[in-house]
From TrEMBL:
Predominant place of localization: plastid
InterPro entries: Formyl_transf_N, Formyl_transf_N_sf, GART, GART_AS
Transmembrane segments: none
Protein name in UniProt: Phosphoribosylglycinamide formyltransferase, chloroplastic
Gene: LOC101252648
EC number: 2.1.2.2
Species: Solanum lycopersicum
Length: 305
């Protein structure tokens, strides 16, 4: 079978050199410096690989250099059923950002407990220390970080301290779940292609600064749009302009109010964000040649969503 390349999002500060596993000549860890673009092509799809392997064989354990924390870590075993490939994956560390009740945060957290998402919520970040999401996190024993630091308050971290704290928690992915502050450039640059946001409309429509919460649904209904739904996208330095990763579609009914539409979209948000979080933790995100990210199907690795 043809050797395939997959993206594992890992890198190292070690010099570029292949380390050949003696038990399996097909398994090769490619250690790249962080400054490298790390892009390979597989059948017209661009990937960001650090591991090249034969689908038929795996070593039992390997140690890797974590991209963010620069510490050696060991992967934990997980089998992706019906994919034709057995992967050994460590649980991913997730940081969730919230500003309100945090219903998407709860859905993701519960999915990690159930095993639907092969990861763990290591920390919650909020700009409102007493919001519902923060209270729930504390009840579950999840550390809570306040960011940004409010004026005339001793609580809260600077951009530099936030990056340092997330690296201390060995964070792999940052999931914005109703976080209403613009993500600082320092954080975007520190976690490239690792920060995601969910927006309650079908971007690029009804997105950007000022479009949040119930305002989005009022604008959708006023426009006469027949469909709406959540969008999950990569985060860049601007509001709602990053590459779209996934979308869910719900109908806009003739008698909808902003509140009824919001409730229907929120149900789809809970489902979609868990699906995306699962794909991230199972390393099923690939990049098309034109720079569009795709989600590889868990059931059929030759199908992309």
């Amino acid at each position: 079978m043809e050797t395939q390349n997959l993206s594992f999002g890992l890198s190292s500060t070690l010099p570029t050199s292949p380390i050949q596993n003696q038990k399996n000549p097909f398994f090769q860890i490619l250690l790249k410096p962080p400054s490298s673009s790390n892009i390979l092509t597989l059948k017209g799809v661009f990937l960001k690989p650090h591991v090249s392997f034969s689908p038929k064989s795996f070593p039992s354990k390997e140690f890797f250099q974590c991209r963010n924390c620069l510490q050696r870590i060991e992967r934990e075993a997980i089998t992706v059923p019906d994919s034709g490939v057995s992967k050994e994956l460590r649980k991913k560390k997730l940081a969730v950002f919230v500003s309100g009740g945090g219903s998407n945060f709860r859905s993701i957290y519960e999915a990690t407990l159930e095993g639907t998402v092969h990861g763990e919520v290591a920390v919650l970040v909020t700009n409102k220390k007493d919001c519902g999401g923060a209270k729930y996190a504390r009840e579950q024993g999840i550390p809570v970080i306040v960011f940004p630091k409010a004026k005339n308050s001793s609580e809260g971290l600077s951009e530099e301290d936030l990056v340092g704290s997330l690296r201390a928690y060995n964070i792999d992915f940052i999931l914005l779940a109703g976080y209403l502050k613009l993500i600082p450039t320092e954080l975007v640059q520190a976690f490239p292609r690792s920060i995601f946001n969910i927006h309650p409309s079908l971007l690029p429509s009804f997105g950007g600064k000022g479009y949040y919460g119930i305002k989005v649904h009022k604008a959708v209904i006023a426009s006469g749009a027949r469909y709406s739904g959540p969008t999950i996208h990569y985060v860049d330095e601007h509001y709602d302009t990053g590459r779209i990763l996934a979308q869910g579609v719900v109908p806009v009914l003739a008698n909808d109010t902003a509140e009824t539409l919001a409730a229907r979209v929120l149900q789809e948000e809970h489902k979609l964000y868990v699906e995306v979080a699962a794909a991230l933790c199972e390393e099923r995100i690939v990049w098309r040649e034109d720079g569009v990210p795709l989600i590889q199907s868990k059931e059929d690795p030759n199908h992309y969503k």
